[in-house]
Design goal:
Length: 283
């Protein structure tokens, strides 16, 4: 009997399965990632089903009419190299329409992405390990514990991300287990950070700061809040040399890398203020 391969929007349970596949690939997703991710664009999480069984996954999240981000492109190991993943890829790209698409591509797939029309912008380097040196807070920087992302945070974030994502930030800051901080200098918002528990340790992202002193101040408060000498992962844009230096200051080592790629010209973002990428899955 011929097998039937169908593509459909994934259920909540199937998104959780895709997150488990990501964990098996060593991507170390957060414990609450599935719920936060699928809330952005529920129609953007597509699965490929062979005789009703999920065998491939992709997310192409449409943030607004102009920008989408691609992630979770995974085929179950038993079904790789058979064309199922590429069929799902094509469906995901169709979902984006004529939007600019961004992704963080693993090394092994970057040439394939280039052949699909993606252009390299810069590398993101994941640093990980046990924090050996907690930074000191800088004078004049006030740190506040927060549990929600209001309009002020959304407005600053919009200058550092290709689309507005206020709804996502609200969910990300408030998700169970997430720990968030904001930084103020001269009564103006100068940065923010969110730490989330993962399959292994904690990821900090986003980590946004006006400069390294603000980033250090955020971490000086955030790291002790999540444990004594915690295992931390920080995804740093390589062009931000201060972010890379900060990761080294913490005692972290490079463990993984991706290429930020786009289907068109890279958006003009102030990478010098991005000390930690929010996620490799949603940008």
């Amino acid at each position: 009997m011929a097998e039937t391969y169908e593509i459909a929007v994934m259920s909540e349970a199937d998104v959780a399965t895709a997150v488990a596949w990501a964990a098996a690939e060593g991507w170390n997703p957060g414990n609450r990632d599935a719920a936060s991710f699928s809330a952005v664009d529920p129609e953007g999480f597509l699965g490929g089903y062979l005789d009703g069984t999920l065998i491939t996954s992709i997310s192409v999240v449409n943030y607004d009419p102009h920008f989408a981000f691609l992630g979770f492109y995974i085929a179950h190991p038993d079904h790789r190299g058979q064309g199922y993943g590429y069929k799902l890829w094509q469906a995901g790209v169709r979902h984006a329409g004529d939007r600019l698409i961004g992704l963080d591509g693993v090394v092994a797939e970057q040439e394939n992405y280039k052949r699909s029309g993606f252009t390299f912008a810069y590398r993101n380097i994941r640093y990980g390990g046990t924090v050996s040196v907690v930074p000191s807070a800088a004078p004049g920087v006030e740190i506040r514990a927060v549990s929600n992302a209001g309009p002020e945070i959304a407005a600053l974030d919009r200058t550092l991300f290709p689309a507005g994502r206020a709804g996502f930030l609200e969910d990300w800051f408030a998700s169970d287990g997430h720990v968030a901080r904001t930084a103020y200098r001269d009564n103006a918002l100068a940065g923010y950070a969110v730490a989330r528990p993962c399959r292994s340790g904690w990821k900090i992202g986003p980590l946004v700061a006006a400069d390294r002193a603000v980033a250090e101040s955020l971490l000086a408060d955030l790291i002790p809040a999540i444990g004594s000498a915690p295992e931390i992962y920080l995804d740093t844009p390589e062009p931000n040399t201060e972010a890379v230096a900060l990761a080294g200051q913490l005692g972290l080592e490079p463990v993984f890398e991706t290429a930020r790629m786009y289907t068109g010209p890279a958006p003009a973002l102030d990478i010098a203020r991005i000390f930690g990428v929010t996620t490799f899955e949603l940008g």
